[in-house]
User: What shape does this take?
Amino acid sequence: MKNKLSNTGGTPDAPAPGRTTGAGRLLITVYGIFAISASARAGFQIATAFKDAPLAYLLSAFAAAVYIVATVSLARRGHKWAVAATVSICIELAGVLVVGLLSVFDARAFPHATVWSMFGQGYGYVPLVLPLVGLWWLYRHRDRAAAAK
Amino acid sequence: MTVDGWFYVGLVVGLASTIICVVAAVTRKKPNDITLVSLAGVELFILVYAGASLVRLATGEHLAGAGWEFWGYMFTAAALPVAGFYWAMMERTFWSNYVMGAVGVTVVVMMARMAQIWYGLSPAVQHLQPGIGQ
Assistant: This one.
């Protein structure tokens, strides 16, 4: 263990340039945390109170699925996975915008909150910022992703 | 939500770990013994909290919320430092310190939820907690 931990010789690495390395790993981490918490929440809602608001809770489950797909496709190398990540993050962005707007202007339609309600207010607005950061990250690494085809 | 000593200790341990890791990341250090020990401290705290919670429940205290939800949070909180460690060690750049820094603050949020489940939500904050348990 000591050897493993102290094996830090050499100069510090510059951030690795790939889509799945460097800052990409942090992005994947945050997506992973949201995938876990959204899944757990949707599972809890559906298991305990599905009858109260089936639509909101199915939406929670959908959001959880989107986060899982985004996490996995962000973590995989290759052009196809970059496309999958882009599509899932676009769906995520559309979801948080549509659900956020609906929950503001028609609060009665969304009495039972989802991760996207009020633009993700309950989660510190991270659900609103995360897809923008994700798309920017994918855009920055578009050439590299295409070259890996 | 009632705030108890456990939450405060968790808050200090979790935020300290996050701050240590973020400072190391900002100064472009690779994960070193200090950041790894801070992550291990978070794990140790969760394990002690889990053991103490078992003892408290066995000696007559009761959860206000659902037991399996509480232990679901506990299990996830215990898994996070381990997962963060592996995910960070797969690529040892200063970015891995940011990854490990995300663990502490996430555990603090989960500590807050566990405190809510333990003591129950006070009506004043109930509207702030969207969805679960309403």
